[in-house]
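Problem 3 from the worked examples.
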Amino acid sequence: MTTAIAKAASGEEKQAALKKTAGRSKQSAGLATLLTATKTIELRLLSLDFESGDLLRTIALDTIQLPEAIHPLNSYASPTPVLDDSNIYCHFGENGTFCVDCKSGKVVWHRKLPVIHNVGAGGSPMLYDDKLVLIQDGVKRQFVTALDKRTGASLWETDRPAMVDPDADMHKAFSTAIAITDKLGRAQLICLGPQWIAAYQPDSGKEIWRCYHGRGYSQASRPLFADGVVYFSAAHSTLGMWAIRVDGSGDVSDTHVEWVIKKGTPIKPSPVLHDGLMFLIDDSGVATCIDVAAGAIVWAKRVGGDYSSSALLAGGHVYFSSHDGKVTVIKPNRAYRVVAKNQLDGRIMASPAAISDSLIMRTDKGLYRFRQQK
């Protein structure tokens, strides 16, 4: 897993960093008063023993001087690394993207791609064949790129659809690509972004289709796909869960939207799908179940708390993890039923992961592994 060790900035250094951020776009001048600035960050990759939790190795990746100020709900290591058989790929937004050999711990390659979010990075890399795919939706430029996972060389780079809203802060987003194959046999990389969601050919980056979802921006949740339909949250301004058929070409804004539900919309937490039902929790703690075939809400319940962590479907249960460390476990059914409520020490911002019969959870106090008793 990745981490970033920050060294506090002096008052003068903090003001300089915030002033720099405030000058990047109109809205950022007000946002700057909320941002967190630091003097340096040490980007690190940590290797732990899965059975014992012992720290095996700390790999120093880079030290960044006066990095971009970040939102208080963000960190300098928010993107999730991704693995293949031999390497791990770590992404820190404009602070760098690293390929590290899992056995030796050596950095195979390192790239810095220009992207300015004003509040820090959030979107994670994804692997498709020999490509590392990154969504780079910043306030100045928005594009999707594929790097050769072996060398880090750029294979293609495609600009996003033109932004309709002129405010630069409404041009940023933090989502992660998904790969699907439609009923026509077309491979697609579906990339949610500000104002638009679009699909691209994996080998060339050529756009397949696009759909305008309004003034939505800062999406951090990841789309879902099932039975020829992609589901996503439009997030800020527009709000709403959207369902779009993926068999179109060109601008499908007026032709392929199946439904829009403008309630219970998450900005950061990603939803899950199970047996035709979508389960999600919004940032303010309202859990919702949606029948995706009908485009109708089955139930909505206030769980309480604030949320950034994505829902997890594992072992026949759905897990919701709040900022204050409360984990609510429900059954993925048409009837809302809480199975358990647990309290962890610390703040939960990271999404949990299921590995075999174990549940991995990370707070600002520690890393936990839970295993089902037999």
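Problem 4, a separate protein:
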Amino acid sequence: MPRTLAPLFLTLVLLVSTSAAAPSSDSQPLTSTHPDPAVPLDSVPAPAAAPLRALWLIRDHLSSPAATRGAVTAACDLGATDLFLQIRGRGDAFYRSALVPPPVMLRHQLRGDSLAWDPLAVALEEAHRRGVRLHAWFNVNLVWAEPAEVASEHLLRAHPDWVLQLADGRSMTALSVKERRDLGVEGIFLDPRPAPARAHLLAVVEELLLRYPVDGLHWDYVRAPRTPFAPDSVVTMAGAISTFVYDAAAIARAVRPGLLLSAAVFPDPAEAFAQVHQDWPRWLADGAIDQVVPMSYTQSTVRLDDWRRRALHAGVGETQLVTGLGVYKLAPEALRTQLAWTGAHSPGGVALFSLADLVKSPAAAAAVREFWRSPASAPRAP
């Protein structure tokens, strides 16, 4: 079954985009449809407030309705105000979609071509019942890294010409797992430069927003891989990535005014642009996103200070920065130290990667629970 759906607001986006990273002239508006909501769209918790107390919830938590509810409950019990729930991991959908295939891990839970249950709907119901905001964590350009066979409807099969090519001209699909590991890349990346590839991503975003009352969109892998590709032009690639960010923002603002847009980014703005072609200070300055979550995964508070200074020097506002800490890198006492640092230096809040790592370490979970119950992390009215 072809999985194509045109974005309802794509024509508007292409006509009125005012960013310097405007869509290319060969982007074509398509015929729109109106998918029915999967969850009542008026199901929303309280407005966002700073500082955020956020947790990333990886897709492994979405193996069953009970596991999904349990993960949301655990995150809420820790004191989180915001959940980044991974609903798109490898070009798939942990929700019911007419555009995107179900994930490999849930293939045994299908009813016909669709999921027998809806992970995102279950998570939204539980989060909103508890007054917690749920952001759809969306891996943008990373589209495959599984050992399993690619589904026939997956974009790798439907549109192999959209896959990024390496500097030697080979498609990333030609790389073995070992070759990808040796190159330091996480998997197979979509090339965002072809306009049809971006149009597909925008259609997926719009379908999601029309059917689910998520409180935010959280971009991840909204970048290029850290390996030479063809043709290797930093400016061209950065422009294409920014075009997606700007066009997706226009759709999101039209469909769901007030939606919080954020992105997980490399923490040094200069390195982010040079290495993976993320121009995130500009995205913030132009309002294409509201906040960034620098992935500040380090054991050193000196590095946290340096990355923060570099971001502020690039013109980023203090409350636009939500410091991302890598729990998996930190012993419980080191985590306490870094949480205290965010209380003093990160008025935008903190995001912790990830709930799964806190579940494994009761001592680390206790440190988070204690910090999030302290005045230093208490959300203030917007």
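Solution to problem 4. Confidence is low (pLDDT under 50) at residues 1-32. The two ends are 45 Å apart (CA to CA).
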